[in-house]
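Researcher: I'd like a structural prediction for the single chain below. Treat it as a standalone chain; there are no partners to consider.
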Amino acid sequence: MSRRATGIFLPPPAIYLLFLALAWLLHRLWHLALPRNLWTHCFGWGLIDAGVLLMLWAGLLMLWRKTTVNPYGKPARLLEEGPFRFSRNPIYLADSLIYCGIALLWGSLWPWLLLPVGSVAVSYAAAPEPVFARSKARGVKFGHSK
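Model: Treating it as a single chain, here is the predicted structure.
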């Protein structure tokens, strides 16, 4: 499989799903359970809800500003408002929140051990260095307001 024009090899939700599948397989082989109680249940669903709401907020803002939500598409403009004030890509942050919520509900140590590797995989697969180099060449500064 080759990289697309934007540099994305796999979309972040697919990467996180692969890491959850790997965590499930490792949990089946080596059972490393974490405590599950009312607090982990509430926080797990809270993280999932926060991730879904953040994803909807960012997605609706992108549609409202007439730029693409498709990670393979070419964005029409750089958004610096709403959730984009806090994160360069809040949808990827939302994916991470949902992953953490699932990990809390699951009650296994494996998703937590794989989270740093999954986050690095998302960073390299979805936002490679050439994106920043092209932006710098055009004079675009991420994270700076006008």
